């Protein structure tokens, strides 16, 4: 008997197979030469508990994602360490009578039993249905949509920008409202999960605690996998994934709060005097990035190599928009001036001209894209606030672009010099909605930034924090602030981009309605945001 079969038998004897692979799988393994992959398997529990997703739409296809986990919170999802063959289908209709593409892929234990099917041969700007099958089990049906053809100018592009979904802080009702929108895609700016240990209800925390993270702060690949599994079993998040293709970025909490390049949050500074050495932090990054890739609808090109991942990439939507997904964590400098979020603007380190937020390779890649033009809208899909913010008493937050003003100036000047008409910046991270024009010092407006609020992080919130009122007074280039949870909805045509802040009035109770707050418009060919 092969060692794999023996392992399965052993699990079975101990009763650990409850909900995992059943006897049919064992039968398949009985021959002395056990197959390395299981095609015909029977599960004792539904294996598609983590839902389905699609992402990174191209004109001819999209990535389809799922991950097998009959016991979502158990190590390896409760499965033995054998590759399992999963089938997928793409159809014109949700009953799958007109199938247009199908295939098979191994869900490998090394990759957390995830499936990433890069489908091609589809029609541009077209909606499809998809599903996965393994053994007798069939997943829920997902909907997805391809991007417009390269030369086409679609009448409109409708997308959501959202992120920051702290599971403990609130229900993901905003995701349920996203699921009901009619969209081309969702841009997720990161903080898909939070790495912190579980807080028990009543225990002090920086937000309310409606439900608790399982376990301690996450460090190992199995920890990250389990945390993703806990988040992905949320029905509202699963519904949003099943409804639209997602374009994923990560921010800090997919790894470690406020990490920067090779440096952990625990950087030996004032707040964390005992530093995590970079070579040790690299191991955590490797685990975190692998789990991120496993759990997101990403292409093979984004598979991490050791502690590095190339998550910056471009998606094109015909002649209407180029979406440049940026990574503002991997190659940035450590937060300057001690790194605690608010520091004195007079700090010397802030004057360095060689500061990095993107790193040289990513920055020149982006500038190359911008120089090509080729679309009405140049959308920079990134993470932390780019707009300068004087927080009062000469304090600024150095985890944002305010921590690298020279990098921001270089970027904005680069956009201006390359004639980047109609540049729009998408931002997450701050857990508030912000709208601001970005300009070179005393110069013309170069871009408009739309900071989306959080899905749940921070709890119910309010319309206007008193401190924010003072920030708005002090920063006249900032046109809008809101401290409710939700997302921003963008509708772009060749003439204008209209942006609506969609919020939920509460997240600590379920079933919040959807409400609109600020509506803003950027007209093509006319820099600067206007009230809609
Ligand atoms: Fe966040
Ligand atoms: Ca963040």
Output the keywords:
532 residues, Immunoglobulin-like, Purple Acid Phosphatase, chain A, domain 2, 2 domains, 7-stranded mixed β-sheet, disordered N terminus, binds fe (iii) ion, binds calcium ion
Structural features, described:
- The protein is globular and about 65 Å long.
- By secondary structure, the protein is of the alpha/beta class.
- A ten-stranded mixed sheet has the order 6-3-2-12-11-10-22-23-24-25.
- α3 packs parallel to α5 (235-243) and α4 runs parallel beside α6.
- It folds into two domains: 44-145, Purple acid phosphatase-like, N-terminal (Immunoglobulin-like), CATH 2.60.40; 159-531, Purple Acid Phosphatase, chain A, domain 2 (4-Layer Sandwich).
- Residues 1-19 and 26-35 have low confidence and may be disordered.
- The protein is built from nine helices and 25 strands.
- It has helices at residues 3-13, 23-29, 173-180, 221-232, 235-243, 278-295, 360-372, 405-417, 466-474, and strands spanning 37-38, 52-58, 61-67, 83-91, 99-107, 114-119, 127-134, 137-138, 142-145, 157-162, 185-188, 245-248, 313-317, 321-325, 342-344, 377-381, 395-397, 423-427, 433-439, 445-451, 478-482, 485-492, 496-504, 515-523, 526-531.
- Bound molecules: fe (iii) ion (FE) and calcium ion (CA).
- Residues 164, 191, 253, 429, 431, 457 line the site of fe (iii) ion.
- Fe (iii) ion is lined by residues 164, 191, 253, 429, 431, 457.
């Amino acid at each position: 008997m092969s060692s794999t079969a023996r392992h399965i038998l052993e699990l079975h004897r101990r009763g650990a197979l409850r909900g995992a692979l059943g006897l049919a799988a064992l039968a398949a393994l009985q021959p002395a030469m056990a197959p390395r992959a299981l095609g015909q398997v029977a599960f004792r529990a539904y294996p598609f508990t983590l839902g389905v997703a699609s992402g990174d739409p191209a004109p001819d296809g999209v990535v389809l994602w799922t991950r097998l986990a009959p016991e979502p919170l158990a190590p390896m999802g409760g499965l033995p360490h054998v590759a399992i063959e999963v089938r997928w289908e793409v159809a014109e209709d949700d009953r799958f009578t007109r199938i247009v593409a199908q295939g098979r892929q191994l869900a490998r234990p090394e990759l957390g039993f995830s499936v990433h099917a890069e489908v091609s041969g589809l029609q541009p700007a077209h909606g499809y249905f998809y599903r996965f099958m393994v053994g007798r089990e069939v997943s829920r049906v997902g909907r997805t949509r391809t991007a417009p053809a390269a030369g086409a100018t679609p009448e409109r592009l409708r997308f959501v920008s959202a992120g920051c979904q702290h599971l403990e802080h609130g229900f993901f009702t905003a995701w349920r409202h996203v699921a009901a929108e009619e969209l081309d895609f969702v841009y997720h700016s990161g903080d898909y999960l939070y790495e912190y240990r579980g807080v028990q209800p009543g225990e002090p925390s920086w937000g309310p605690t409606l439900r608790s993270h399982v376990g301690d702060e996450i460090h190992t690949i199995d920890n990250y996998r389990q945390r993703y599994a806990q988040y992905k079993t949320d029905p509202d998040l699963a519904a949003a994934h099943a409804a639209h293709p997602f374009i994923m970025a990560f921010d800090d909490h997919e790894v470690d709060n406020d990490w920067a390049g090779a440096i952990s949050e625990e950087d030996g500074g004032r707040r964390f005097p005992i530093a995590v050495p970079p070579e040790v932090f690299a191991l955590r990054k490797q685990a975190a990035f692998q789990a991120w890739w496993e759990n997101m609808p990403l292409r093979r090109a984004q598979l991490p190599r050791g502690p590095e991942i190339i998550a910056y990439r471009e998606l094109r939507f015909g002649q209407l928009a180029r979406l440049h997904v940026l990574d503002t964590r991997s190659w940035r400098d450590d937060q300057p001036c001690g790194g605690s979020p608010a520091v004195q603007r007079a700090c010397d380190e802030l004057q360095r001209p060689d500061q990095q937020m993107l790193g040289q390779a990513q920055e020149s890649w982006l500038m190359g894209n911008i120089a090509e033009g080729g679309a009405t809208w140049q959308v920079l899909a990134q993470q932390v606030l780019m707009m300068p913010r004087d927080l009062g008493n000469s304090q600024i937050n150095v985890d944002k672009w305010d921590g690298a003003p020279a990098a921001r100036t270089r970027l904005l000047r680069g956009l201006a010099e390359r004639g980047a008409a109609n540049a729009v910046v998408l931002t997450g991270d701050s857990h508030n909605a912000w709208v601001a024009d970005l300009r070179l010092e005393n110069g013309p407006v170069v871009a408009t930034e739309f900071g989306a609020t959080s899905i749940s992080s921070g709890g119910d919130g309010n319309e206007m924090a008193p401190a924010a009122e003072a920030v708005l007074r002090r920063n006249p280039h900032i046109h809008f602030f809101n401290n409710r949870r939700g997302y921003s909805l963008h509708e772009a045509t060749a003439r204008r981009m209209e942006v609506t802040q969609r919020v939920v009035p509460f997240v600590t109770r379920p079933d919040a309605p959807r409400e609109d707050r600020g509506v803003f418009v950027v007209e093509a060919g006319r820099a600067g945001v206007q009230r809609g």
